[in-house]
Fold:
Amino acid sequence: MKELLFVDCCIRGGQSRTAALARAFFGAVDEKAYHVTRLDLTAQDLKPLAGNFFEARQTLLAQGRLDHPRFRYAHQFAQADLVVVAAPFWDLTYPALLKLYIENVSVDGITFGCNAQGIYGKCRGEKLVFLTTRGGCYEGSPLEQGSRSMEALSQFFGFGSYACVAADGLDAEGADSRAILDEACAKARDLAKAL
Ligand SMILES: Cc1cc2nc3c(=O)[nH]c(=O)nc-3n(C[C@H](O)[C@H](O)[C@H](O)COP(=O)(O)O)c2cc1C
Structure:
């Protein structure tokens, strides 16, 4: 059985349309093929890398203490066969809560490494899937920095491939938001079935 890590950054919980997209995806995942672990970011005590929290990390890294509990998110991320991230589109990207998580998983020696050729990814994940919903219409626009950032990170961490399903323009005036979300949910189900 493969390990699927679900990084849930659907901050509005039951009200979240991104969460509805994620439910569609997970409803179609083969339960016999994947063991799913959901990491609810709203329930984690994630801190920014600053002050003592930053200094303590630098000391641990210098000492090679990668088994320290504070690196548990990085180990979990690196060992997953598949990672699915669900987060809404905020301020042209994703919420700061997801950025905090990324800061915490981005650890030299666990999720990436360095050699004479440069930086290389160390994650075993075959694929990184990003599920998102956006108020405005940003698909294909250079202003869209959520999926772009996740795709770059998937390469940085060494994932085999990247896929994004987005419901775009949900809050645009006159938009049929139900139909847009339904279409995205259908795409999410197809992606999950094709894993
Ligand atoms: C704090 C905040 C920031 C947002 N920023 C943007 C934005 O920059 N561009 C945009 O098109 N929509 C923006 N939106 C609208 C959301 O992308 C949209 O409503 C989305 O579907 C919310 O997802 P959710 O239902 O999963 O919370 C923002 C919403 C919030 C609450």
User: Anything to note?
Assistant: Residues 10, 12, 16-19, 88-92, 133-136, 138, 170-171 surround flavin mononucleotide (CB under 6 Å).
